[in-house]
Amino acid sequence: MKQKLDKILEKYPAAVFKNRKQHIVVKDDSAEQPQTIAANVRTIPGIITNRGCCYAGCKGVVLGPLRDAVVLTHGPIGCGYYTWGTRRNKGRTKGDELNLLAYCFSTDLQESDIVFGGEKKLYQAIREAVDIFKPKTIFICATCPVGLIGDDIHAVALRAQKEFGIKVVAFSCEGYKGVSQSGGHHIANNGLIKHIIGTGEKAVGKYSINLLGEYNIGGDGWEIERILKKIGYEIVALIPGNGTVEDLKYAHKATLNVIQCHRSINYIGDMMRTKYGQDWLKVNFIGISSTIKSLRDLARYFDDPDLYARTEAVIAEELEEITPQIEEYRKICKGKTAALFVGGSRAHHYQHLFKDLGVETVLAGYEFAHRDDYEGREVLPTIKEDGDSKNIENLEVEPDPKHYRIFLSKEKYEQLKNEIQLNDYTGMIREMKNGSLVIDDLNHYETEEILKLLKPDIFCSGIKDKYVAHKAGIFSKQLHSYDYSGPYAGFRGAVIFARDIAMGLKTPSWKLVTPPWKTQPIIEGSYVC
Amino acid sequence: MLDFTPKEYVDRKGLVINPAKTCQPVGAMYAALGIHKCLPHSHGSQGCCAYHRKFLTRHFRDPVMASTSSFTEGAAVFGGGTNLKTAIKNVFSIYNPDIIAIHTTCLSETIGDDIPAIILQSQVPEGKIVIHANTPSYVGSHITGFSNMVKGMVKYLSKNSGVPNGKINVIPGFVNPADMREMKRILKAFGAEFIMFPDTSGVLDAPMTGKYEMYPSGGTKVEELIDTGNSKATIALGSFASADGAFELDKKCKVPYTVLKTPIGIEATDRFLMEISKITGKEIPYELEEERGQVVDVMVDCHYHYHGKKVAIFGDPDLVIALTEFAISLGMIPKYVLTGTPGDSFEKEVGEMLKAAGVDGKVKAAGDLFTLHQWIKEEPVDLLMGTTHGKYIARAEDIPFVRIGFPILDRSVHSYMPLVGYRGAMRIIEMISNTLLDRQDRDAADEDLELIM
């Protein structure tokens, strides 16, 4: 494998070769030291990366799904346009609440705004949004030119907040900041901690949790919510899928933060721990066995006999419902191989679900994850921040004198820490099979070559890769948009995923790719009547 | 659906809601994909490139390749020269296109990167070409970006060598590969020699063969692009997307040009055919006249399916202008006509058509779908025609909806079927008729359900 990989990389110019080598790891169980990988560094120009930008991470991913806020893009039209309805973070309105998910708001900057500044137009746009929609919150998201022309969006936000008596928060998530979407997650996390979380008061129950880093793509969050509520948990805030800014205000009241996507939301998890004393628990609701494990881990944190009993009863009930269907699809999927290349968390999460279906993951990689997502949080102290990411603010928070609480005794905490991923995430690499490949910031060239090398049955990536694989005769399943299906999370989601994978593998069209005249001789001669 | 759009019209000066346009670079990327063995390159931060590739991929359900300079903050402050030079080197050695077509974004335009100077300092292998177009996202729309890249092709490549090639240049405008195929079929029916540029047929509608080709067989070849300077004449279809390229070619190589409407509907197609006939001196072939007669036959036979229906049309200007003309010829009433792309000529041209047809309608350039929705709330229409984004309004107001234009993200096959020419006209009639009749069937009481319609 190593040699074949080297052969692929040899085509690169020297500087690219040197760089890319560090982003590729062959999992080696016999290695004496834990294996390391280079990640979260600048993209090589011209390499055809799959990565997006800081704005996408902030507006498109974290803030966009909050359905009761006007999320206003300050920039030329494209940025707002491309994040309009394209990520499938579903939201459902309760009562007469505001739901703005079907809208796209932009200041649509023109040449004169670039020359004379866009602050006036931004203020005018806020005024109009207030007049029309009467929102309680407006988020302003900056785009590339905003930082360059020096628009002070934070000052405009402050002025508008005073004038209109609503919450107006600005996010300096210019596309060139950081090296990928990741910087945008961090900026969004900081803004929510600074301005939203902890600004409301509400009484909550005994088993109260926040669901963090779950985006409700295709209704994932709803399936997770269904299971958690069935067991008896109270969900205080959803951050952000189907979430509202109103609920986020009370997030500090919950007992525990439950984290699905570590990459995008671990900052809030950490900061809430420091500020309010809440622990966070890394879970994975993708896959049947991992959902069961996550539910049991969660019960352990609360350590309540009733909750344990409810947890086991719900697991048994759910398994009974899905097992016959899963078994049918498993027959089709078993023994196949998959290559996974997804943003910052799913390349790990979906390995569990594939395992449940008897599919082996031979390659996994992220666009923009950091080393801790690959190697586990224990490497955090060894990660050096480079110049490209220094401009993303590291927010320092302190214990909140009013709201800081301690939930677990020291002994209990130490004991649990050894049993579950409490305030911890052990990363993707250690769960992967010996000999499998891990590639960071996979590019088009490597995708093409590695698909030829590994010949996986299933390539899971995004829309930009999907048809490349299809043209080459490999079934590709989008793990960002789920190919407009879902949910894939939880128990019922696993069935839908299994159905979709089985369908993609079995569709008769694959047999028609080669015309028959390419494989069979056409009979020569003519009919005699 | 869209429950928070009030009926009372609100005049807005700062806020755009639900745009009917997107930004320049994606148009330039599309145009560049219409060159054979070309890799489009986005000189900006990489988010733009990712978004633009996605926009096109979702519309065509085909791979869309492009590279990017991947600006970091350092480059944003000190200039993106190093990024671009590195990118050019990497692209040629890893992806080996014949030509790189660079476009810019609001980032590199705001900082003022001098692209020609950077290209001169770059390592371009022997026999390879790098061209560019400036495509600031804060000017115009994606249609402007398409136009700018076409202009870029002319500026860098077109040459008048003094040896006439006897060909007609055709700039098809921002249309689907199927439309380009249909235009070429028409030209071939004349036996006309032509160069179409750009041409995305065979690129964004490439077949499944079991082997992925990074540079599919389609696209206008570089030598043809060079040869455009030797042609007899240029036909520019769609003034917003194609006129500037034709004008530039006339200026540079003295190739005379005619700007026509995108050939959608009978009249616009008639003018396209007559222009070809005029330039080539060839008769209009009977097979095309037969096709024309078939469409008119259908129009007369089925006029009661759509005559007198009020329609709202939105999308890109060239397409909307032509479609409005066609709708009028079908006896429909284009009540609201809107494009997101700025340009006074749009309002003037559509306004005149409506006036001539005696239609009391509203026309707006640089408008958005929030405005269109508010108009519809004030006075409803029978049919909505436009891109996929219109489906939310169609659902909110329960209006029959025909998908036409860029992008269509929620239906398949559309990019393989022409809208232009007589065949395209036939297809548009079928879409309009079927949509309206489906609604009539849906709404009919049991006793009113008709077997024959």
Please give the structural blueprint:
The complex is a heterodimer of chains A (529) and B (453).
Chain A: H1 2-9, H2 14-21, E1 24-26, H3 54-63, E2 69-74, H4 77-82, E3 105-106, H5 111-116, H6 119-133, E4 137-142, H7 144-149, H8 153-164, E5 167-171, H9 182-195, E6 208-214, H10 220-231, E7 234-240, H11 245-248, E8 256-259, H12 262-276, E9 279-282, H13 288-302, H14 305-333, E10 337-342, H15 346-356, E11 360-366, H16 371-375, H17 410-419, E12 437-440, H18 444-454, E13 458-461, H19 463-471, E14 475-478, H20 490-506
Parallel strand pairs in A: 2-3, 2-4, 4-5, 6-7, 6-8, 8-9, 10-11, 10-13, 11-12, 13-14
Antiparallel strand pairs in A: 1-12
Helix pairs in contact in A: 1-18, 3-9, 6-8, 9-12, 10-20, 13-14, 14-20
Chain B: E1 16-17, H1 24-33, E2 38-43, H2 46-60, E3 67-68, H3 73-78, H4 81-95, E4 99-104, H5 106-111, H6 115-120, E5 129-133, H7 142-157, E6 168-171, H8 177-190, E7 194-196, H9 222-227, E8 233-237, H10 239-253, E9 257-260, H11 266-280, H12 286-301, H13 303-306, E10 310-315, H14 317-329, E11 333-339, H15 344-357, E12 362-364, H16 369-378, E13 383-386, H17 391-397, E14 401-403, H18 421-443
Parallel strand pairs in B: 2-3, 2-4, 4-5, 6-7, 6-8, 8-9, 10-11, 10-13, 11-12, 13-14
Helix pairs in contact in B: 1-2, 1-7, 7-10, 12-18, 14-15
